[in-house]
Amino acid sequence: MHPLPLSRAPRAALLALVGLLALPACSDDDDNNTPDAGQPDSGTPTDAGTDAGTDAGTGDGGTGGVADPANWPRDFSCEGKEQATLTFNPGEEQELQDAVNALVECTTIQLGAGTFQFDNAITIRANGITVKGAGKGAQGEATGGEASTVLDFSNAAANTNGLDVVGKLFTVTDLTVWNAKKDGMRIESSSNVFIQRVRTEWSQENLESNGKYGIYPVKSTYVLVEDCEAYNAADAGIYVGQTTHTIVRRNVAKKNVAGIEIENTKFAHVTNNTATDNTTGLVVFDLPGNPIRGTDIYVAHNTITGNNRPNFASVEASSSTVSQVPAGTGTFILASRRVEFEHNTWGDNNTVDIAILSGLAIEADPVQWAPGFFNYPSADIYIHDNTFTGGSGGRVDNGTPDAERRPLGALVGAVYAYGAAVHDSPGVEHVLWDGIDPAPRNESLSNPINICVTGNTLPEGTRSALVDFDLQAVGGHLLSPTPNVAAAWEETRRYEQGAAPYNCSGFSPALTIR
Amino acid sequence: MHKPFIPGLGLAAVLLTAALASCSGDEDGVTPQPDAGTTERDSGLPPEDSGTPDAGDAGDDAGTPDAGGDDAGTPDAGEVFPPTTLSGFGLFTGTPAAGGLRPVEGNIPYTLTTPLFSDYSVKTRTLFIPPDTSARYSASEVLDLPVGTIITKTFAFPADLRVPEENVRVIETRVLVRRPGGWEAFPYFWNEAQTEATLANGGRVVRDVRFIGEDGVERRLDYLVPSKNQCLKCHHVQDAQDNQVLVPIGVKARYLNREHDYGGEALNQLQHLANLGRLTGLPPLDSVPRAPNAFNEEEASLEHRARTYLDINCAHCHNPKATSGTTSRLFLNVENTDAFTLGVCKRPGSAGGGVGGEFDIVPGSHSTSILWYRMDTEESGKMMPELGRALRHNQASRLIADWIDAMPPQSCK
Fold this sequence. Notes:
Distance between the termini of chain B: 24 Å
Number of domains of chain A: 1
CATH topology of chain A: Pectate Lyase C-like
Domain Right handed beta helix (chain A): 170-314
Number of strands of chain A: 32
InterPro entries (chain A): Beta_helix (IPR039448), Para_beta_helix_rpt-2 (IPR022441), PbH1 (IPR006626), Pectin_lyas_fold (IPR012334), Pectin_lyase_fold/virulence (IPR011050), SO_2930-like_dom (IPR022442)
Protein name (chain A): Right handed beta helix domain-containing protein
Pfam families (chain A): Beta_helix
Oligomer: heterodimer
Region (Disordered) (chain A): 29-77
Distance between the termini of chain A: 32 Å
């Protein structure tokens, strides 16, 4: 939805940039402000490096246990209440719909094995509801078998979701949502949500008109997504948005534009997931305009490899964040704070394994970030004890940069094409920092947002692990009427793992949700 | 010297990050903090589901409209609530098969100055306010209707909209009932024979509905009778505890402020209600606000008509008290005078599919305005509103395009 400000540069300049062509001087858009990037102190007001450590995580009291759903507080309980079970089998879809719309709280809906054909969303507005199938089957299975239940929405009314839920204490397990018209499973404004062993899938790969989100809990509290699978979503396979307290573990996300997204979310525990063969694998970000300020994200033991699927998000004028992501992005962190990565595996991501970005990279107007109290800076990113297997960074955006639709990839691609030709660069380093925060950049600050990259296993022969890309300066050189890619390259700085200033040991206080 | 990455950012960023420093404490002060898991997570939440209409436990006495006593002809909910058939309400005589539904006395038909669009269906509405009770006038909000009030809306498709009285197929009647615990909504689905409508909590899809539009063009659609729970998706506001509470949409003074033919006599609808003792507090009619007919150029300015259309069609969600409004920060209620939250040069609030542009409204350019795109498209997942529309409302698409194009052009950044 939010184009990179780069896209507002003269189109001709961007297009020419990709081909490294000379340009006519055609614009003075960029000349009306005095650059102040080099001016001492002008960049210091951002408190990212210090504030981020204190404005979150302090309330948890170090009690731990938040990562255990058994310890979650509940604002609704079925204890002591009548708990009926209603059973439905394929062919009884209308009866099921009638029952769902007359639910007494604390009812379990047991779905038999086989395929249910729905012509409308299953809309639940009651507390204490459980929806339980016979199993989620396997990827590609459009029909339920003896031990699986498929809810098929292929012929549903336009504009409807698969499951559409608002309720407290909601559980859904052991079923598949197939070909939903919009989102597979949208659970909104709910609390104590348990999504287990569910598959959401669209039948066709790379189809822009597929549903946007597979598993989509949003604006909720205490959400568990575990042992699920998500395929072929035109935006995100698993998308936890605007939620406080979530556990996302042991899931598989493949063939989506974005595999797993953690958005505007506080206290997320994201472990043992596999995000492979998406455009981008596992991402953490805040969107502008959202009042929830995401923080405290723990990402461990995940496999985030081979995310090189061409970006099939909408080809309309950019209106979704992920439509701007270059293919081959393992992970991006954007407008995020207090994010810790350990024991993950990245590799074979064509553009980069991890990109650390400022929110201003997608929305340059700080006012748009006002509802989240100007939550655009990223800060306190701790990447340690992971394994980078290699094969990443050598083919930015799969070698097909698109300056109009994915301008960041186009810029990075242009710089690294030059680097390969002139400086024998092997490609983008494992971690790329855009260098924007604090904005405007202050060159006197060595590691202003506290990025720590230590103790990771790197491929043999790795020269540098991290690049400070200085997107502001690079963009200035490349988007000028007289682009200078050599000067742009010179702005970028590379660091070996263990080199100062990125050899720090995390942030304080440490996460309490590990 | 570097080119500024973001022209003009420098000073703004300094000022705003300073604001951030002073605000972030507040922010966390109002945000639920993680806790030890032993106490109530958020004391702002009410226990359980207080105030939310429940899912229809039958037999509940509450608010069943009962005329009480012997005055025949007044509706009576009968023994079971909700009744399994529309006739169980006793609100109508006759059937569509036998010359049409006729509201009983006291069940007052009404028409809105600009109605909500629902795939060109023809709609008829009635309002029943129990005897000895009355609604209270509000200048801007939904009329304060007493417990026992029943609102009905019947949806039909004539074979040819140019002759809307002929070959009419009645599809559904939606019933809103004001009960002590709040409003509840029930969909009733008409049978093929057009002799009875049956409670259809689960909704229905009617395949391949066809009709000829006023432009002479045949249209087809799969018509969705929303399920009971789907009613909440449009008819809702968030109460102080963030629970979704069901409310009516159209029964506001400004939409009721027009004449209606009551048995050959044309009367102002609000005055008629007041005359019957069913409305109190009605000020002199010339001081009652009026929403114009959005498609009658003689009634109001382009802007007023466009804002009216958005108000009745979009503002039930896009207002500061509805979930999607608060998420998107797009407020299309007619009272909103803030250009930004009205969408001018505003980016949409959350990620989503391509919708034709970067900003909700680009003044002077409807074709790059997301608001217009979502109204104009018939693509599933992109069109708005979410429910109740499969077809483009051509007139409205034109109206909103004209309105945006008439704004002084402005390039959004």
